[in-house]
Write a structure and sequence with these properties.
Layout lengths: L1 H12 L7 H6 L1 H15 L8 H14 L5 H24 L3 H15 L6 H16 L27 E2 L2 E2 L5 H8 L4 E3 L17 H8 L4 E6 L9 E6 H6 L16 E6 L40 E7 L4 E5 L5 E7 L2 E6 L12 E3 L7 E3 L18 H6 L5 E5 L4 E4 L4 E6 L3 E7 L1
Parallel strand pairs: 1-13, 2-3
Antiparallel strand pairs: 3-14, 4-5, 4-6, 6-7, 7-16, 8-15, 9-14, 9-16, 10-13, 10-15, 11-12
Helix pairs in contact: 1-3, 3-5, 4-5, 5-6, 6-7
Length: 428
Amino acid sequence: MLSYVRALTLDLSDTRHPSTAPIILCDEACHRDLCAYAHHLAHGHRPHTFDCMQSLLHKAHERMSTASSPSQLYGWRRIYTDASILKAVTLVLDLNPLLAIAALDYAIIIAGTAGAGRSEMVHLLIHEIQLTNFPTPPFSKPTSPTSSIRVENAVLCAADHQVPELSKSPSFLAFKKHHSAHPFIVRGYADDWPALRDHPWGSKPYLKSVSGKGRIIPVEKGSDYRAENWTQLLMSWDEFLESLSFEDRPPPNCTKDVLYLAQHNLMSQFPSLRDDMIIPDYVYASPSSPDYPQYRPPQNEERLVMNVWLGPKGTVSPAHVDPYYNFYVQVHGRKTVWLAPPSMASFMIKSPECNSLRNGNGKEKISNTSLCDVFDSDKIRNDDIFWKNVPPNAMAAILGPGDLLFFPPGWWHAMRSETTSFSLSMWF
């Protein structure tokens, strides 16, 4: 365990190290505190308390939300990451392995394990802590067959059309030239993915086996983020899974709270999940976007952003727009989707703000979201401008396991889970 601290100490003591220089530029006092704490741990002098690291974590988290430049934000993320690692090692030495794992998950969720080699270090630490304290038996897939789900056409008052379906996956060239400008569905596209076969994402035991014990995830509390009582929290992965109904494990207790793991890169926490999917070659097509001229691909190294969406029946993503192309794969359960072209923007009645923890205590602007409830037929005609103009141009569909939905940037879209639903989005 201390070998990680020694490696971290060497990095921090090298003021020219690419992972250390941003910390010094951000806050020299924080760098001195990290160095001193790491040096004591590395030489076997266990601190009586990690209050110093806790103060650094609090300060870094606070400053991340007010950083004035990308370099400053990166520096505070670096401070948060290294302080989390040192806190976790201290907790392990104090025989608190579950709290140590939680501290490392916080580094992934809040700071993105910023720094060269830090992601690998954090995952190795988690693995070592789990292996020593909570060994997990290998997953064994049940022999009983999974029941198939029959998908019907979507019937929504807010959409007069069905999303077009392709009989087979288009070629790379055909996608780029003929299919990248409009939404389409390919039924059963992901049927051969491990996530739908030997490593089923619809299996509670499998999802627990890939995570191991003690993991923490960010969830939304509430079925719709436009609601006043909607909020965000960090909670136990195991506890979250127990709140959901899966075919192989129904929930033991009913919960009044609607919990939704939404728009989260779960693969950053559980990397083996990435082996359960096959990224479509289409994401490297670099299509143009004449209907959305402000389009720019994601600015990360892969030019690809992947997120998952896991929640119970009834969870809703209200009508909104995203600035990227999207391949959306339904891995487990059924989900109703609604789409409208960018030309409908003036009729969508944008929502001004919502509750959010990402912007401190208060409101966050969500100008990409509409107030129109496309799933509630009881509210039909309440707003003439929407109901007169949008439904004739909108389309809907129900996605089942293995189905792929594609839509370009700027398209308005909304989703509603019809069962426990696990979906994967790929922005490019």
